[in-house]
């Protein structure tokens, strides 16, 4: 021991041990990061950027400012109390002329129509006759369409000239801007999204509860049978899990429809009359039955893996201490399975609120989810901003539940199959 | 679950009630899959059992829907598309996912939790949201309605499964085995092929199978971003169910059930092999 205690320990080449260790850790950190980097890059391009694009679309509002640039500038001076002056009308005529030539007014007219009905025909009708009009533009434009003579029209154009808007989010929760700029609820007969959000949540709640009700006994049985038997029965759980979603949905159509297997059986058995066949599909019942079946394995598997860790001696101990069967179950076994219930419940709920295929095929009108409306706005009404806003709200809800799940269970504990 | 000999009568009744309840739930789980198999041999174009079928009359059964399936150019083309997209995205997801899993199981991986949560997110985000988002983005960069676009999308969806299974396999990998191999005189190459690879492969293969089935069964994203050229089998089924409902769908469904039985068997064999190699015997 020639070294005095104060000199630091070194490696063979004389580098202090601390430095050398830090360098080694840094290198292995770098190596780990380099291994993950390609996948991270891939997911950023193929997944995160699309999600970002969608969030952007839900507030993006380019139509007015890009199609009516001169009008927007002219409106900056406007007080919003009386009709704007001739320069604004002249700018509008100029913009519409340019837009008509470039054939770029379609998007603008639909965008303004979302805010105020009648604007589509006002814009398109005026644009068609724009080449013929002569100053003074104010009278000429009002002559073509009365909308240009209303203050509200100009208020809407002024408000929507901002490059961002919250109106898609307002529309997603059945609200809108009044012409004066206040936020008001849309008329009752147009309130559709709130109902759908609410229906999606309560039906998913029912489905989650039903999967728990059906999954708990099965998981209990599987966890307490000898492995040889439980492995066999497990196949009955895993086979539906592995079978195509469309196949499982199709089978429920075959079984539940009014000329289907179940109704035929009931009629043949004399349980119901031929004219009084049950309506079990294309409504809420159909969605709930089919989705409970489809999501059941997602409840059974987490419950099973928790129950597997509970030693059977606990229940025996509770019984030997004098607890009746039900009391021992309620006070000892059930509390121990709560983590499994939480994991399975959140998983089923998250999956359920995002389901699209099954409600679309077996839900009819009354059993549709909010996801079906995202598709509707994407494909039929072509209001992509609104679709993006609804999807963003749903995404937010899912992320909140995912974070809870992650805190309670941990994503890395997710087991498959 | 055996009933102890001292069980009271009430407990016995309860026990058998419980078993019957479980039997009913199992029937609910598996029954629908069993119903469609005979239905797919229906000679009539209906979705229900005909009289002749119930009387087990051979005339009530036929292979006409299978014939229709195997002779229809649309169905065959959709199968081809499904395999092209499925295999390409599985390969990509497996390679990227396995390399990343190696990094994730390193002891020094920084921000592991956050990165893991990110890598799993395509599994958690509802498909309709991913589909809408990918539609917006891929149309912007001219990847919508191309094979590449569909493959990239399906790769993203398959990645979580590969990452989960491979990290799980690696976390139970006993690194002393590598040292043991070295001490017994194996060089690194030999150690990799004879020790590491056989132990890790089952995890990689089951991850790949998960990724493949995810792609093979995926409707929503394809519905949004694929063009008519990339029509896959699930899309063909989807429009079949929505438009002209014919028992050909049931024939396809039966074939898919058979496919999932094959997959399940493969996975089970892999799991057993894995346990055997690790010296864990199933109790």
UniProtKB/TrEMBL annotation, chain A:
One GO cellular component term noted in the UniProt record for this chain: plasma membrane
Gene Ontology process terms (BP): transmembrane transport
Main localization (coarse): membrane
Membrane topology designation: Multi-pass membrane protein
Pfam family, any one: BPD_transp_1
Domain ABC transmembrane type-1: residue ranges: 197-405
Swiss-Prot/TrEMBL keywords: Cell membrane, Membrane, Transmembrane, Transmembrane helix, Transport
Membrane-spanning residues: 32-52, 201-225, 232-255, 288-311, 332-357, 384-405
Localization per record: Cell membrane
Heme in keyword set: no
Signal peptide (UniProt feature, chain positions): none
Family stated for the protein in its record: Belongs to the binding-protein-dependent transport system permease family. CysTW subfamily.
Name of the protein: Putative spermidine/putrescine transport system permease protein
Species the sequence originates in: Modicisalibacter xianhensis
UniProtKB/TrEMBL annotation, chain B:
Keyword ATP-binding: no
Keywords annotated in UniProt: Cell inner membrane, Cell membrane, Membrane, Transmembrane, Transmembrane helix, Transport
Primary subcellular site in the record, as a coarse category: membrane
GO cellular component, one term: plasma membrane
Domain of life: Bacteria
Compartments where located: Cell inner membrane; Cell membrane
Membrane topology recorded in Swiss-Prot or TrEMBL: Multi-pass membrane protein
TM region positions: 16-41, 83-104, 116-138, 144-170, 191-213, 248-270
InterPro entries: MetI-like (IPR000515), MetI-like_sf (IPR035906)
PROSITE patterns xref list: ABC_TM1
CDD domains per record: TM_PBP2
An individual GO BP term: transmembrane transport
Residue intervals of the ABC transmembrane type-1 domain: 79-267
PANTHER family, per the entry: INNER MEMBRANE ABC TRANSPORTER PERMEASE PROTEIN YDCV (PTHR43357)
Family per record: Belongs to the binding-protein-dependent transport system permease family.
Name of the protein this chain belongs to: Putative spermidine/putrescine transport system permease protein
Organism whose genome encodes this protein: Modicisalibacter xianhensis
Lineage, top ranks: Bacteria, Pseudomonadati, Pseudomonadota, Gammaproteobacteria, Oceanospirillales
